[in-house]
Amino acid sequence: MTAPAVSISGQDADALGGDDSILMRQRRDHARLDAMMNRYRSEDLAPGEPDAVWSDIVQVVFSHAFAEETVLWPLLRRVAPDGEELTRQVEEEHQAINELIARIERSPDDPRRAEWIQRAFALIRQDIRDEEDELLPRLRTALGDRKLRRVGAAWEAVRATAPTRPHPGVPRRPPGNAVRGVPLSAFDRLRDLAPGCGPAARRASLAAGALAAGGAVALAVRAARRRG
């Protein structure tokens, strides 16, 4: 295995390719997740606030991970000698998080919910450490600042349209994750908004989401064919 590079966790923006580089974007998202997990565990939350914080955590976790799996890990497999091994490990971590959070979402009244959430937080924090200490330094070693910024813009674009809920059955690698995951993002984002909508608005939104999902499937399939 290639000797590990220096963790990105303690480096400044200049060392990581600038504020818009993929490394800085990743680190900001990781810091945001860490702050939200700490907030969830705070004792001064108002009634109902833990559920809102949990929902925010879930949305960030899955949009972030989907963009990694679509943009970053295929690139890492191309540029790092040990990229296959490293990305397989982090994909297994993502799958474990996916399955655990899916169980939490299916069982809102289970007495083990608090225990499961703390386990999910531990898995997320381990995933962050592995990425910042092992995977992302490989991108810093292999890519120049301009390329890191271009990758950052691509990652951000994918994250903005990625699924925001757990889908354990979606593959972890392209093109399967795009073909099956991108259409689900329309429904996820509508579900994120649905609690504040009336029934008529919700039905209209779901109908629009179905149309958007159909278009997303076609685009994903065409993109997969071009890569094949």
From TrEMBL:
Domain Hemerythrin-like: 27-139
InterPro entries cross-referenced by the UniProt entry: Hemerythrin-like
Domain of life of the source: Bacteria
Name recorded for this polypeptide: Hemerythrin domain-containing protein
PANTHER family for the chain: HHE DOMAIN PROTEIN (AFU_ORTHOLOGUE AFUA_4G00730)
